[in-house]
Amino acid sequence: DIVSIDYTDDVWEKKNVTDLEIDQDKKTISNGVTTYDYDKNTLFIYNGEFIKAEDLDKSDTVTLKGVDDKVWTVTVEKYHGYIKLENVDKIDNPVITIDGREVEFEDNQAPVSAGAHSLGISGSNIEDLTVDIHITAGEVYSVDLASVQEKTGVLTLNVNVDDCIIVVNGKQVSKDEPVVLSLGTYPISVSAEGYKTYNGTVVIDEPLVEVDIELEKIEVKTATITVDSTPSGATVYANGAVIGVTPFTTQINYGDYKITFKKDGYMDYNVDTSVNEDRKTISVLLTEE
Fold this sequence. Notes:
Blueprint: E1 11-17, E2 21-23, E3 28-30, E4 35-37, E5 43-46, E6 49-50, E7 61-67, E8 70-78, E9 80-86, E10 95-98, E11 101-102, E12 109-113, E13 115-123, E14 126-135, E15 140-144, E16 152-159, E17 165-168, E18 171-173, E19 179-182, E20 184-191, E21 198-204, E22 208-213, E23 222-230, E24 235-238, E25 241-245, E26 248-253, E27 255-262, E28 269-275, E29 279-285
Parallel strand pairs: 5-8, 9-15, 16-22, 23-29
Antiparallel strand pairs: 1-7, 2-3, 3-4, 5-6, 7-8, 9-12, 10-11, 10-13, 13-14, 16-19, 17-18, 17-20, 20-21, 23-26, 24-25, 24-27, 27-28
């Protein structure tokens, strides 16, 4: 039976030690001020059970006991848990803080001391968020970043044409209604009859974004065309539409046409032509059927 235990003067005990640095190669334990040695006989204990040196984290609070510069026992008084980030890819430039201090994550997981903490979440595309959490020793606390509120901006478009079609990010929107979008870059197109279609992008990087779009009119060139036939009195079609009865002179838009002459008692006469000059004359000889 043990009657008594006496400790020599060089036996020591240090409580509430934090910020441990453990070098498994050198077999040392440091609190940033003093460095101690340990060996295979050193006991690492948490909640009455043995653990390994590599199970400890800087966030743990421990009691050290030893002799001279060697540690005999490392007893964990306050153990750590973990924070795991889910859907972190949805946040641009994420910064996660615990009690105001930024936390480094490895494989989207980081050790945190057990207990109550203030969790801060920020990113360039989300609203800053601070929530109170409680970490349980040895367990994982998951944080789903998909539910974090995205930052948004309001887009206002000023177009010089009232009757136009506006498409932002593949969705048609009204000219007179502001569009709420998450921060980012979006394709935009604006079209209107008689105007060249505008295609571009808009960057939403602040709460209010205003864009002026000036649609450019399409210039329609016309030519004077004189049409005649022998005999006269033939009905003339341009791409299937009647344009006159020979002989006549009219205005026609620049372009490619199929001109057809029709007259009772005569064979249809077809001619393909391009109108690309100010004046053009077409004269044909019809053949009796």
